[in-house]
Amino acid sequence: MNYNNKIFNMSPLKALRRLFCGGLGLVFLFLISCCNNNPDIVKETSLLRIDSMPDHPTPYKMLDWHDKAVNFDAVIFDHSAKGEYQPFIWLDSAKRNINQTTFGLYTVIGDVRQGPGVNNGEFHEAINSMGALLSAGLVGIDKTNQNGFNYVRMVQNYFNCHNGWNIMMNNTCPEVAQLGGGYGRDWWYDVYPNVLYYAVCNVFPDVNRADSLQHIIAEQFYKADSVLNGNYDYSYFDYSKMKGMRNHIVYQQDAAAGHAYVLFSAYQKYKDKRYYNGAISALKALLGQKESRFYEVLMPFGAYTAARLNAEHGTNYDTKKILKWTFDGCHAKDGRYGWSIINDTWGDFDVSGIQGSFSHDGGYGFLMNTFDMAWPLVPMVRYEPQYAKAIGKWMLNAANAARLFYPYEIPNKNQWLPEQKAVTKNVIAYEGLKKTDIFDKKELKGVSPVALGDGPHWVVGQPNISMFSIYGSAHVGIFGAIIRKTNVEQILQLNCLATDFYCNKAYPTYLYYNPYNEEKNIEFFNSNGKVDLYDALSHKIIAKRIEKKGEFTIRGNSARLIVAIPAGSKITKIGTKHLANNIVIAY
After folding, report:
1. Which of 83, 87, 194, 511 is the most exposed place for a label (fewest CB within 10 A)?
2. Which of these, 119, 202, 215, lies nearest to 500 by C-alpha position?
C-alpha cells in the first residue's frame, strides 16, 4: 500500500494530523534550504598547497612573538652593550642624502663589511633598519623618541637623492655598499624599502619631512609604471633614467606587486586619482603574467592590493591566481625556479608555511620572508574573507615552524653553531633553515633540518658567527603584533588590523582557525567598553555585551572572522558591504 492509500484509510482526524505535521516538516526543510543558500554566508575558497599542510604541525610550540620583538629591540638598539661583536648598532655621521646623522645595524653578527670604521660607516641596509623600526612600532615601542634618538627620522637618509633616483634604496649610497661587497642592482631591493617606508610612516605618523618624501616616492613609482606600460620584464629599473634595465639577474615581474601596493597606499594617503590608476596599471601588469614570477617577497602584496580594490572599489581582480602564484611558487625555468611557500616535513619537524625555495638543496626557508608574508596576507582576509580558513591554517603552520630558526628553539644537533648561540641573546636567529645535509661539516651529515646562514659565503674573511642574522630577525614584530595565543592550544588569535596600513576606519578584527574536528570554546578578552562579537563569515552576532571577558564557540575544522563592535550596534547593509554605525565590518 502506498503512502497516499495509507492516509486515505486513516480516520479523518488522524489523516489531518499527519498532513499537518508533514507540512511543517516541508516548511522546516524549506527554511533550512533558504539558510544554506543565503548569499551573505561566506563560502570558503581553498588553496591546495595549504590544504595539504598538517592540521596539527609537530612538534608544536608557539612562541610569545610579542615578547620576542620587545626583547629584540632592547638588545639591538643598545649603544652601550659590551662584549664581542657588540654593540649591534653604530652611528653613521657621513650625512649622505640628508644633512643629519643616521644609524646602521649589522646585517649579521660580526659582519666584516660593516661598522663605524669600515667603508666610512656607510654600508648598512634599509631592509634591516626599517624592518627593525616597523617591528618595534607594531609592538608599541616609540622609535621617534627612544633614549634621545628619533630613529624614524634618521632612516630618511636612505632616500637616495644624490644619484637622482629619489626613492628609498637599500643603502644610503649603493656605490659605497658595492665597494664593501654589497648587492648589485636587484629590483626587489629597490622596491621593498619603499614598501617598508610607507608602513613605517603609517605606524609613526607626522614625522618631519616624511610626508614630502612619501609624495616624491609616489611620483617616482607612478612615472616608472607609466614608462613600463605593462611590461615588467626587467631585472631592475633605473628610477633616475626612468628606464627598465637587464643584467645577470632573472626578470622580476612581481615588482609590479610592490608598485601596486605603494601606489594604492599613496592613493589612500593623498587621494590623488593618478596613484589609484597607477596601482590598477601595476596590478594588471602583474596579473598579465602567464605563470608565477615570484622572486623574493613582493608577490603577496599584490594579493592584498587586489583584495582591497575588489572589496572597496568593486573591481574583479583574480586574487586567487596571485595567492596560488605565491604558495605554489615559481616553476618558470627562466624565473627564480622553486621560490614558494614550503610544504614539507624535514626530519622530525613539520616546516610547512615557511617561505623560501622548495628546490634549493631540497628546500631552503628564510625567516625574514616568512615574517613578511603575514604582513599582507592576514589583513587581506578582511577584504576577501573566503580565504579565512586557508590563511588561518597557513599561519598556524608558519608560526610554529618559524621558531626553528632560533638557536634556543632547535636541538643543538640541528644547527651550525650551537656552541656560539649565547651571543644571540635569544633574539637573533639563523637566517635560514635547510633540508639537506650537503655540507662539509661532518657533525651535520645525515641531519635534517639544519639552521644556518649565508653570511660566511658573502666575502672572504667573514666569520662563522655571521650565520646569525640580525637582518632576518628584525621583522619579528610583524608576528609579534598579529599573533596571540588563546585558551586552546593551536587556536591562535590573529589581529587583522595590525598590518592593514592606510585602511579606512575599522573595528578590531580577529581571525581564528580551529584545526580540531570538534567544536571549541574560545575566551575573548576586551578592554574597549562593552562589545558584541560579529562573525564576518556567517554575518551573525555570536556573543553579546562582553565587557572584560567573554566566550564564543568555533566549529571544528573551520574559521571565524570576529569583529568587536560596540554593544547594541545596528547592523545595516549597503550593496555588498555590512556596516555597524556606518563603519564597514564585512564585505
Report:
1. 83
2. 202
Over residues 86-138, the pLDDT tens digits come to 999 999 999 999 999 999 999 999 999 999 989 899 999 999 999 999 999 99
Q: What is the DSSP letter of 415?
A: B
Query: Rounded to whole angstroms, how far apart are CA atoms 195 and 200?
Result: 9
Cis peptide before 87 (omega within 30 of 0): yes
Closest among 371, 365, 321, 311 to 343, alpha carbons compared:
365
pLDDT of 183 reads 62
Residues 6+ apart with CB under 8 A from 38: none
By C-alpha distance, which of 216, 198, 196 is closest to 207? Answer: 198
Give the tens place of pLDDT for each residue, 75-97.
999 999 999 999 999 999 999 99
Give the three cell numbers for residue 311: 572589496
Beta bridge partners of 177: none
Strands 429-430, 468-469: pairing kind: antiparallel
Tens digit of pLDDT for each residue in 204-219?
Answer: 999 999 999 999 999 9
User: Distance between CA 496 and CA 509 in Å, rounded?
Assistant: 6
Q: Rounded distance, CA 331 to CA 89, Å?
A: 39
Bond from prior residue into 59 cis (ω within 30 degrees of 0) = yes
Q: Give the pairing type, strands 492-495 and 509-514.
A: antiparallel
Q: DSSP assignment of 274-291, as one string?
A: HHHHHHHHHHHHHHT-SS
